Amino acid sequence: MTAPQQVEVIASALSRTAGRGGADRGSRSTPLIVVPDSWAEAGGQRPRRATGHPRARRYLGGYLRWLRISDLLVIVIALGLTTITRFGFTQADLAATGVGYTEVSLGLAVAWVLMLNLHSAYDGRFTGHGVQEYRQVFHASLMLFAVLAIGAYALKVDVARGYVLLAFPLGTLLLLASRYAARRWLVRQRRAGQLSDRVLLVGDRDNVEQLVVALRRTPDAGYNVLGACVDDAPAATEVAGVPVVGSEGDVLVRAVDLNVDVIAVSSSAGLGSSGLRRLGWALEGTDIDLVVAPGIMDVAGPRVRTRPVQGLPLIHVEAPTFDGPALVVKNLMDRAVAALGLALLSPVFLCLAAMIAFHDRGPVFFRQERVGRDGRTFRMLKFRTMHTEAEAALPSLMAANDGAGPLFKIKDDPRVTRLGRVLRRYSVDELPQLINVLRGEMSLVGPRPPLPREVLAYEADTRRRLLVKPGMTGMWQIGGRSNLSWTESVRLDLYYVENWTPLLDLMILWRTVRVVTRPDDTGAF
Q1: Confidence of residue 285 (pLDDT cuts 50, 70, 90)
Q2: What is the mean pLDDT of the chain?
Q3: Cα–Cα distances in Å, from 65 out to 41, 58, 193, 304, 463?
Q4: What is the widest separation between alpha-carbon atoms in the chain?
Q5: For the domain 3-46+196-295, what is the CATH code?
Q6: pLDDT in tens, 98-107
Q7: What are the residues whose beta carbons fall under 8 Å from the beta carbon of 119, sequence distance 6 or more?
Q8: Which of 121, 122, 123 is nearest to 137 (CA)?
Q9: pTM of the model
Q10: How many CB atoms lie within 10 A of CB 296?
Q11: Hey, where are the domains in the chain?
Q12: Which of 141, 224, 121, 140 lies closest to 182, judged by CA?
């Protein structure tokens, strides 16, 4: 059967199942035709998938080739340094084999690159965003040295322990650092609108709008939305700034017209299960990927499990956890880092304290009551950045509030001293909160610590921010700080509350360093 004939069969089947799809939706009575009668009507030849890796984007070909080259160079450097460090410049052989460690290193370099390929470390879908790329690199490296250890034991080959103990961590760390540097370049390109997937959205107006907002929040992920196929919005209009290019039944024709890389279908789309399956069939052998966005928002990957039952993919969403071993690790890490930070920063504390006291002869610290975990209050410490009469002047400034929701902030607050503006700009005034962390009242990472008057204005869902300790930094700080709306601030804090992991904490701490050194880009005032 030729490709046009296959398309005609699919189109016919879709027409027969249109009534069922409409019944599922409850509002569609017109026939649903996702696939045109022939690919000629969809703009010419059937768009064939490029050769090579089935998921390697054509526009990412050069970038992925560079990753392979840079990974090989990094591995060779790491293994070369390991050989020189362990054996010097003399030739060393594996015991009773006559094979030198130079040859072992070359073979191991080739095996390392092959293991990275086997673990999909060059899959274009995972580059630029999230931890999956780093996880694949780490797992590939771990598996390689596990195989090496098992093979050496099985063959009774005595591999120098010092060689293995140095090669594995050094090579893995250099690989991760190289990937991070490459990702920073890719992220800059994507934020400029380059090297991104061209996406067509499908669904009803509300769900398409949510998808647009979510994808725009994370340009690093590389999704550039070109248009949307929406039934409950007329063509030539816009949904969240994205043009409506047709109805849901026009999806394939519009996808070919726009030359998209991805069709993203929301859970609200009226295609029905049969229509969605046949749309997937129609895209077989093409360079267009089909993505289905479930109606679950702000749930991180570790809480989602997929279990197929008779061909039905059931999505299990695990409840958020607020105790257990991970929380113990978090508390121990918080207090250990806080103690170390206070010890290392004590000279800085003394210098800043002297500057503040000399500036206006007032107290060094500012103590303010804040609300912590489970609604318990505590006295939060900061370096004083305002005049001593600042609290008394607050009522007269309420009309000039620039803060979102119940927050009170003024961009050019007249109560802030000249020294205080510098301290606030680079978040140095927050450093005394390490004492609160050491006391167990705060965490290094968590939601913003609220004032009691702010908590009184909380809605029921917003109060979920109090399920964990407040943090010195958090999603709100790396996500825009004072530039965020109140709704967006709450959303970020609740995302952290329900999805926190030690790995997420480390990621936020890493990004915080970049945020505080670039205050102009992050809404600091």
Answers
A1: confident
A2: 80
A3: 36, 11, 21, 32, 48
A4: 89
A5: 3.40.50
A6: 677 788 888 9
A7: 136, 137, 139, 140, 143
A8: 121
A9: 0.71
A10: 11
A11: 3-46+196-295, 58-191, 325-521
A12: 121
